């Protein structure tokens, strides 16, 4: 016999779904809003994008459906074009790194000046201060609507040759870097040989001994199992690439106020979740408590440094004196790049830090 009670419940759910779909269609919303994400779904960045999509659906009662496209699938791997494509409306929104938007938003390079922002406290002061607002305003001028900050993390150095503690240790090291000219200038200033290559080629280079090292946040180093290739890690916090959740500005302005408010709330919540993922185990118990108490989430690797050491890596934490030596060695980078970023943005960042 048919279970009438179950059928009635199913029919009710279908009716609710149809009502939401009709409401969304009547309001002129798309069936799907495409989201560009550079990395895969298992990295913290990708997990943050998934969380954002889930929260948007929840907070808009299913009226707005965001679908993350991981691995820059919408761009065929050309991740540096994401901001242009969102500005044009080809892609609706993105969760992107300041590295990737910097070709269009040079102000975003304020986070990439070497040894300028060395800890979470100063990073937060700049993100949520005058300099961070200047980055957001620059995005708005390029038809992008910034919604919230997240984080890829401070980028750390690993290599197969030597424990890097001084600038002299960098001499001659062939280091894989991202395709940002500021990064290349920084490693050249340190006497290293920076090489821009995609990750697949870099791994082959590690295995063949053609490339000696690389730089990435610990949230990337552990999933890619960097310990398979490198013995030495230097926790030097030499620069950071925050993430920004942003939307096509024209499309954003067409949303009703209540939809904007719901998406904005989702972005801030997802950003807080993803930032806590990236910082967990690096800021004492602060991020662990956020994840546990606010998101009911427990880290699989609660202490990334201990984990890397357990895999046979030698991890060195730079002292203040050692970091000062690296900062001095890269001073020439400032002479060139403050002009590119904008002296006023640099001064705002310094004022933020001094607060």
Automatic annotation (TrEMBL):
<dbReference type="InterPro" id="IPR018389">
    <property type="entry name" value="DctP_fam"/>
</dbReference>
<dbReference type="Pfam" id="PF03480">
    <property type="entry name" value="DctP"/>
</dbReference>
<comment type="similarity">
    <text>Belongs to the bacterial solute-binding protein 7 family.</text>
</comment>
<feature type="signal peptide">
    <location>
        <begin position="1"/>
        <end position="26"/>
    </location>
</feature>
<keyword id="KW-0732">Signal</keyword>
<dbReference type="InterPro" id="IPR004682">
    <property type="entry name" value="TRAP_DctP"/>
</dbReference>
<protein>
    <submittedName>
        <fullName>C4-dicarboxylate ABC transporter</fullName>
    </submittedName>
</protein>
<keyword id="KW-0813">Transport</keyword>
<dbReference type="InterPro" id="IPR038404">
    <property type="entry name" value="TRAP_DctP_sf"/>
</dbReference>
